[in-house]
């Protein structure tokens, strides 16, 4: 049995307690050492580049964030941030 130790990204402490789930289903932890909340696996790019490209391409064709949300299940906030980065 493998125990995965999760460390706080802020203070490197391993005194983390489970603290519910993020909207994307990821386990959230709260650090007992510094009191900050963190995710088990922080992914600034939750979507792989290929997927992102596909979604951005669809956006250019349809120019509808609402449509993208329906089609890809991606949040409008996420797509907006991609567009701004370009
Ligand atoms: Zn901490």
Give the helix/strand layout:
Layout (H helix, E strand, L loop, with lengths): L15 E6 L5 E5 L5 E3 L9 H14 L2 H8 L3 H10 L1
Antiparallel strand pairs: 1-2, 2-3
Bound molecules: zinc ion (ZN).
Would you kindly provide a written description of the structure presented here, covering whatever features stand out?
The structure is a single chain. The chain has helices spanning 49-62, 65-72, 76-85; strands at residues 16-21, 27-31, 37-39. With 86 residues, it is of the alpha+beta class. Strands 1-2-3 form a three-stranded antiparallel β-sheet, with no helix packed on it. The longest helix is centred in the middle third of the chain and has 14 residues, at 49-62. The radius of gyration is 17 Å and the shape is elongated. The model has no long low-confidence stretch (mean pLDDT 80). The structure holds zinc ion (ZN). Zinc ion binds next to loops. The site of zinc ion has 8 residues, from loops.
In short:
The chain is α+β, with helices and mostly antiparallel strands and 86 residues long. The protein has helices spanning 49-62, 65-72, 76-85, and strands at 16-21, 27-31, 37-39.
Annotation keywords:
single chain, binds zinc ion, 3 strands, 86 residues, alpha+beta
* Low-pLDDT segments, ≥5 res: none
Largest sheet, in brief, is: 3 strands, antiparallel
The helicity comes to 25-40%
Question: Rg, please?
Answer: 17 Å
Mean pLDDT: 80
The chain-level structural class is alpha+beta
Strand order of the main beta sheet, please?
1-2-3
The helix-strand sequence is EEEHHH
Shape type: elongated
Distance between the terminal alpha carbons, to the nearest Å?
Answer: 44 Å
Question: Helical region count?
Answer: 3
Q: How many DSSP-defined strands?
A: 3
Beta content: 15-25%
The unique ligands bound to this protein are: zinc ion
